[in-house]
Design a protein that fits this description.
Layout: E1 2-8, H1 16-23, E2 29-32, E3 41-45, E4 48-52, E5 65-68, E6 73-74, H2 76-86, H3 93-96, E7 97-100, E8 104-105, H4 108-121, H5 133-141, H6 156-173, H7 182-196, E9 200-202, H8 204-213, E10 217-221, H9 245-252, E11 259-267, E12 270-272, H10 285-293, E13 306-308, E14 310-311, H11 312-322, E15 326-330, E16 340-349, E17 352-354, E18 366-374, H12 391-404, E19 408-412, E20 420-422
Parallel strand pairs: 1-10, 1-11, 2-5, 2-10, 5-7, 6-8, 7-9, 11-15, 14-16, 15-19
Antiparallel strand pairs: 3-4, 12-13, 16-17, 16-18, 19-20
Helix pairs in contact: 2-7, 4-5, 4-6
């Protein structure tokens, strides 16, 4: 029996979906533990790109069971479209995909609340994806939410109406103009709920407990990144759930002492979507080049990602709070062609050089301290072994390992699952 955990160590978009896909053959069960349809996991194989929003990234492996845990929030409409996108692959979705009854539902009015709240913030907006994630988690912690298990109960529509009416009163409070047709949105929602009922619901904490007793191997899959964690991220520019290792325990019902390896995923550089502090952001041609070569556009939102150099202060922080035991470095190929690479090894924080993440990393408080490296010109995308990699890249990797004191065991050199080098 093994329970391992895989999560992102930056501001999301690290490439978790690809690595889950690569590792899935080692596991019987892939379990998603938090987040919602704002988190897109991109997989690429056989020349086809696949974007998953709610469904775990192991769905394309015929022998794996995929679980959507209680920490996830589900939009039935988005979920139905995701299922429809998988129909051409002739999968037995009902047996391969299991959904926790304790997972919360995103209602149409949650999305409207999200839009009203963000509009009301004006220039102070946090960069919400407007998928209704925040309001759904607010209802969860406020003990108002509706869960997947509720749709099996006779009074579901009555519970829905009560909560939706409350939401409409809240929308009026924001005093902003947003256009919507709620009856039309609700028609689509209830049709999607009927389709959701055709899938397999489980009491996921009991299912996973029995799986562990039966010697099954489990990989817990996180969404977004550690620096977006509601407690440990760059608050308030964060998501509404716990994206760190602790979130796997609360989002699946797995005890902390059952987790063995924690795989941490990071890019060879850094990106961020939306608002929020980003000390190593590059506003010049280097940042533009990273965005262009790395195709840095959100898989769900399509928004261009902000790009900059690798931040080891933030990376060490994420490794520390997650107890990371192995690292996977993604998009090493994107850095090919730069004459000089920079890595942030410390911050100048209010006139003092520090090597830990302080309370505020806003630009008025923090200036990055860089170490420079010689770049490489070689095209990495066709390389299949660590020995083939250029010396400069190996030195870059060795420096990172020494600084963070955790080994890098996988280096990704392209989007396809085959472009993955085991170190």
């Amino acid at each position: 029996m093994t329970v391992d955990l895989l999560l992102g160590l930056q501001w999301g978009d690290e490439g978790k979906g690809k690595i889950v896909d690569v590792l899935t053959s080692k596991y019987d069960i892939i379990a998603r533990f938090q987040g919602g349809p704002n988190a897109g996991h991109t997989l690429e194989f056989d020349g086809i790109k696949h974007v998953l929003r709610t469904i775990p990234s192991g769905i394309f492996h015929k022998n794996s069971i995929n679980i959507i845990g209680n920490g996830v929030v589900i939009d039935p409409v988005v979920f139905q479209k995701e299922i429809e996108g998988l129909e051409k692959f002739n999968m037995d979705i009902k047996s391969k995909l299991l959904i926790s009854r304790k997972a919360h539902l995103i209602l149409p009015t949650h999305r409207l609340l999200d839009a009203a709240s963000e509009t009301a913030k004006g220039k102070a907006k946090i960069g919400s994806t407007l998928k209704g994630i925040g309001p759904t988690y607010m209802d969860k912690t406020g003990r108002n939410g509706l869960r997947v298990g509720d749709i099996e109960l006779a009074d579901f529509e009555e519970k829905y109406r009560s909560l939706a009416n409350k939401h409409e009163e809240m929308i009026k409070f924001y005093d902003v103009s947003i256009q919507y047709n709620l009856p039309e949105m609700e028609k689509e929602f209830f049709e999607a709920v009927e389709n959701l009922k055709k899938l397999t619901f489980i009491d996921s904490e009991e299912y996973l407990a029995q799986a562990q007793k039966n010697g099954k191997t489990i990989l817990c899959e996180g969404a977004q990144g550690s620096l977006l964690d509601v407690d440990f991220g760059t608050y308030p520019f964060v998501t509404s759930s716990n994206t760190t290792a602790a979130g796997a325990c609360t989002g699946l019902g797995i005890a902390p002492n059952k987790i063995k390896d924690v795989y941490g995923i990071f890019k060879a550089y850094t990106t961020r979507v939306g608002s929020g502090p980003f000390p190593t952001e590059d506003f010049g041609t280097d940042g533009d080049t990273m965005a262009k070569v790395g195709n840095e556009f959100g898989s769900v939102t399509g928004r261009q990602r902000r790009c900059g150099w690798l931040d080891l202060v933030a990376l060490k922080y994420a490794i520390q709070i997650n107890g990371v035991s192995q690292l996977m470095m993604m998009k090493g190929d994107v850095l090919s062609g730069f004459d000089t690479l920079k890595v942030c090894t410390a911050y100048n924080y209010k006139g003092e050089e520090i090597k830990h993440l302080p309370f505020s990393i806003e630009e008025e408080n923090v200036t990055p301290v860089y170490t420079e490296f010689k770049g490489w010109k070689a095209d990495l995308t066709g390389m299949g072994s660590y020995d083939e990699l250029p010396t400069e890249l190996k030195e870059y990797i060795s420096f990172i390992e020494k600084e963070v004191e955790v080994p890098i065991t996988i280096v990704s050199v392209g989007p396809d699952r085959k472009q993955t080098i085991m170190k």
